[in-house]
Amino acid sequence: MRPILVTGGAGFIGGEFVRQWIAEETSPVINLDKLTYAGNLESLASIADDPRHIFVHGDIGDPECVRQLLNMYRPRAVINFAAESHVDRSIDGPAAFVETNVLGTFRLLEEARTYWKSLPESEQQEFRFLHVSTDEVYGSLGPAGKFTETTPYAPNSPYSASKASSDHFVRAYHHTYGLPTLTTNCSNNYGPFQFPEKLIPLMILNCLEGKPLPVYGDGAQVRDWLYVGDHCRAIRAVLARGRLGEVYNIGGDSEKKNLEVVHAICAAVDALRPGLPHAPCTSLIKYVEDRPGHDRRYAIDFAKINKLLGWKPSRTFQDAISETVKWYMDNESWILSIRNGGYRDNRLGLIDDK
Questions:
Q1: Active site residues
Q2: Which of the four CATH numbers 3.40.50.880, 3.40.50.720, 1.50.10.10, 2.60.40.10 does domain 4-194+224-253+299-315 have?
Q3: Alpha-carbon distance 137 to 162, whole Å?
Q4: 127-155 pLDDT, tens per residue?
């Protein structure tokens, strides 16, 4: 079968997608990744010798690189995971988010459009451009209600603004040029191989090492948590059966306050590694200055993808969080490789007006 082209496939969600695809599908994967700080080839070690996985070190913002891959491998789909994704980093340095998430997506769309137009009609009809986005483009919810596919965009951080822009470009390329696009907007992901600046892996590692557990503000910000394996199965369902030009929201049906998440991690670490000198791990919780413009609540209504494509999350937060904690305990070499690359757990995203 003709291959698919995955961008950002050495990152957290993209890497899970590639590993899952190789395990459960038959067609090859061309994996294009820039290998920024959050990209890690060790996350792909289990498929490194599989001939159906072809890794290419490159940038979606490099038209020549993308053009060469499209013409060489003639993929039947492009799945775009490539993005700068950390809100705190976007506060410190928004330019990188514009460059990758906006301009990079635009350049990828341009090359995909040219390639698609060059295909025979039968291959044009088969081709898909699937863009992976976030619920943060919708802004902040009140205490009730959920985001749907028709919720107006109201991004509140440089990160979410850059993703909102990329979503609009994808929509425009479908309506203006007819490019067969699909877009997914997901809630907060968690699971193995997540870069440790994100809430869940950061708290796990700090629990294990006896470091403070920094909780922003009052810790009552609410997020809907989605296990990364469930997310990637949803993306595969959209790729296979989604209606062209449509948006599909993907949620985990697991709303939790940030403080609840931290307590769940503490309980799992205490149970899985008894006898830590700083136990119970909740003693490490430290309330710190909140993130500027921190959205209060996100929640996803995934009724559309459930009704039309038959997808729903298979993992509950209660079940999967202990498994995730155990994975980090058992994979110290992966964590060490990231730290050897220069990551030092520093707090980001505080505005210095002095």
A1: 135-136, 159
A2: 3.40.50.720
A3: 9
A4: 999 999 999 999 999 889 999 999 999 99
